[in-house]
Amino acid sequence: MEAEAAKLIGAGIAMTGMIGAGIGVGNIFGNFVAGALRNPSAAASQVGNLFVGAALAEALGILAFVMGILIWIS
Amino acid sequence: MADPLHQFQIQKIVDLPDVTLPGLGPVDLAFTNSHLAMTIAFVVVVGFLALVTSSAKVVPGRLQAVGETLFGMIDNMTDGIIGHDGRKYFPFVFTIFLFILGMNILGMFLSFTATSQLAVTATFALLTFGLVLVVGFVKNGLGFFSLFWPTGAPLVMRPVVGLIEFFSFLLRPITLMLRLFGNMMGGHIALKVFAGFVATAVIGAAGWFGILIFPLSLGMTVGLTALEFLVAFLQAFVFAVLTCIYLNDVVNLGHGH
C-alpha cells in the first residue's frame, strides 16, 4: 500500500473517535430531557451544567477531529 | 472545487517592514486578514456597548434590553458559579465572552474566522490559565497546591487521585484552546464542503446526479448555517462558563466543596 493511501485511511480511522463523543453528548441531552420532564421546575437551573457537560464530552470528539486533520495535512 | 482549507489561510493585506526584537529575532508586523477580523470584532463590540449605554434609560428600549440581557447573563453566571467574589472577575469574563462571541459571529459574515486560528484561541486559553494561576497563588499562597490534594478520597488513594487532578489541571488550557478552535474550524469546513457539492451539481460536473445532489446539499448548507450561528454563541458561552468554573476552583479553595 502506498504511504499516501495509508495516511488517508489513518485520518479516516481517527474520525471514529467521534462515535464516543456522539454517544456521550446524546446521553447528556437525553438524560437532561428525561430529568426535565420529571421535574420541569428544576430544569432551568441546570441548563448551565447541561452545556458544560456537553462541552466537556464534545472536547474529546474535537481532539479526534484535530488528530484526523493533523494526520491528513501532515 | 476549491480547497475547503483555503479559507483559513493568513493573507497579508498591508505589508509592513519586519521589526527585529531583542531576544525574539525578526517579527513580521504585516496587517493580515486575521488582524482585520479581530479589529472589526473589537470595533463592533466597543461600538455596540457604547451605543447601548449612550442613552441609557430606566425603562430600556430594544437596543438597551439586548445589552442588558448579555450583561445580566454573565453577571448571573459569575455570581452563581464563583459566588460572593464573582463581581471582581466579571470584567474579565464579560470581555472574553463578548470578544469571542463577536469574532465567532463575524466569522459567519466575513470570509475569515479569527477564532478558527489556533494562535488566537491559544492566546485566550493562556490568558485564562494565567489568570487562574495568578489568582490562585495571590489568594492562597502555597495553599494553592491543596487543589491537588483531594480530601474527599481515602488516604491511600490521595496521591494517585491528586496526580490525575494535576494532569487534568495542566490539560485545561489545551482543551479550552482546542474546543473553540475545533468547533469553529470543523463547522466552517463542513459548510464549505457542502457548498462545494452545490457548486459541483450546478456546473454539471456530477451529470444527472446533480438533480439529486443539488437540493440535498443546498438544504444541508442552509441547516448547517443555522447550526453554526448556534455554535458560535454556544462556544463563547461555554468558554465563559469554563473560565468561571476554573476561577471558582482557586477563589473558593478549601471551602467551596
Describe the model.
The complex is a heterodimer of chains A (74) and B (257). The longest helix of chain A is centred in the last third of the chain and has 27 residues, at 47-73. In chain A, helix 1 runs antiparallel to helix 4. Chain A is mainly alpha-helical and 74 residues long. The model of chain A has no long low-confidence stretch (mean pLDDT 88). Chain A has four helices and no strands. Chain B has 257 residues and is mostly helical. Chain B is built from six helices and four strands; from the N terminus they run E-E-E-E-H-H-H-H-H-H. In chain B, helix 2 packs across helix 3, helix 2 crosses helix 6 (210-251) and helix 4 (118-140) packs parallel to helix 6. The longest helix of chain B is centred in the C-terminal third of the chain and has 45 residues, at 158-202. The mean pLDDT of chain B is 88. Chain A binds chain B through residues 48, 51-52, 55-56, 58-59, 62-63, 65-66, 69, 73, and chain B through 5, 77, 80-81, 175, 178-179, 181-183, 185-186, 234-235, 237-238, 241-242, 245.
